[in-house]
Amino acid sequence: MTSVLPPTTLTSWTESQITAILQATTPIAFDEALENFLAPDAEITVNGKPLSKEQYKALLQKDKLQESSATVDFSGAVEVPTDGEKAGTVGVFFKSTIFKLLRVGGAEESSTLTSSLNVEISQFTPHFITGGGPGPVVFPERRVSKLDQVMVEVANPIILPGDNKPTPL
């Protein structure tokens, strides 16, 4: 017996994939999250510049080894399905606070990434996972075939313990 997982909306899929990428704490988790998000031949544009998948990965990984955690807050989204809930276009706006491993005077260093992201999601061949249940589970394959992102990351003011004013950067 095969069970099919119910599809999530295109927006919730996009938001969960972005969150997985930004909150990945190991190189393996980051690579897996990015591979689950982008098609192998995805067209990528960031801040008006075309990037290869490897260049986009390098951009996102730039300071990843110095991060301890991240929060992601989505403040708006719009989706236009083209094949039911299987494919379509999604636009999201989000902010992510990225906490660094480094501490300055005992205070946690952080930055805020603000981004508008538009993606075209395509349907790919499903894959099957077996084990742990009555039969294989079918996972519908969605991948981003086109990504257009505008983003900026800004260092947050540092507030030292016991101080009520931010320390200038």
Automatic annotation (TrEMBL):
Domain of life of the native organism: Eukaryota
Name of the protein in question: Uncharacterized protein
Organism per entry: Jaapia argillacea MUCL 33604
